[in-house]
Amino acid sequence: MRPARRLTLTEDVYESVQALIMDHAVAPGARINIDALARQLEVSPTPVREALARLEADGLVRKRPLAGYTAAPLLTREEFEELVEMRLILEPPAASRAASAATASDVDRLRAEADLPDPEPATEGYPAIAAFTAQDARFHNLLAETSGNRMLHEAVVRLRSHLHLFRLHFPQAHYGISAQEHHRVVDAIVARDPDRAAAAMRAHIAAARDRYRPPGATTRWQGWAPPVGLVPSGRRSVSPCTAQALTLPSSSSLVAYSTGSVGCQARNEGDGVGATTPSESSRPVAGSRRTAVMPTPSPPISAV
């Protein structure tokens, strides 16, 4: 039973930290303080380090010798276009091969993954779309696996394209459209039509490129602003403002910081500093004496 609890804890911490990074609560490029993060999540540093190692493999954090972990920067416009180009190189041929190689069982699995889930109700930020992100990635990875080309499958998986695109920008209005495009690919595979399958995948990637490219972006861009409120991730939740403190050394004195469109203040309860205005709301973080004070955010910045 102990290993099962350990696995659950590690997965829980991984999902919590992933949500903070995807929501930009830990800003792109910011250094991540492992000890502070462990305190806020009410765990030891070990599962935090394990989570960061997984996130490094995902490409969401970077580790430098003697400097620790930092959140990976957002894609530049050039990197965005290169990512799309790589998908166009890899995935249409994978769909074409799948049309010839897919078994009845493969088709059933692809059909099941093609239907994408709706956003989680009453949930903000990345946790609202986490299931969508995971299932969308499973569909594309499964299709590449069905191609029968192991190296092609591994290349598609290594791109981690969905995490990078959804971190950049997420237009929630396209849920149904993406599912329809997935089913067109599967229909072509069922019809054993390699050319049609490749064309359907090519059209899907091109449409996704237009959906995920933020309007008016120049050299670098920014996705959604961090949501106000606690990041829903089971019982280990961290507010976005508190998350910003995770990139700073812990201190009992007043800490003031501001990133992007959300400004935050942190204070120790009962010390009389960092008083809030009536328009601000404060929420205590479980297991901590630190209170995050969250003003109303300004509109998100589409390009920086």
Automatic annotation (TrEMBL):
Molecular function GO terms recorded: DNA binding; DNA-binding transcription factor activity
CDD domains in alphabetical order: WHTH_GntR
Keyword Iron: no
Gene3D superfamilies: GntR ligand-binding domain-like, Winged helix-like DNA-binding domain superfamily/Winged helix DNA-binding domain
UniProt domain HTH gntR-type: residue ranges: 7-74
Taxonomy, superkingdom: Bacteria
Coiled-coil segments on the chain, per record: none
SUPFAM superfamilies: GntR ligand-binding domain-like, Winged helix' DNA-binding domain
Region (Disordered): 268-304
This protein's UniProt keywords: DNA-binding, Transcription, Transcription regulation
Pfam short name (any one): FCD
Protein name (Swiss-Prot/TrEMBL): HTH gntR-type domain-containing protein
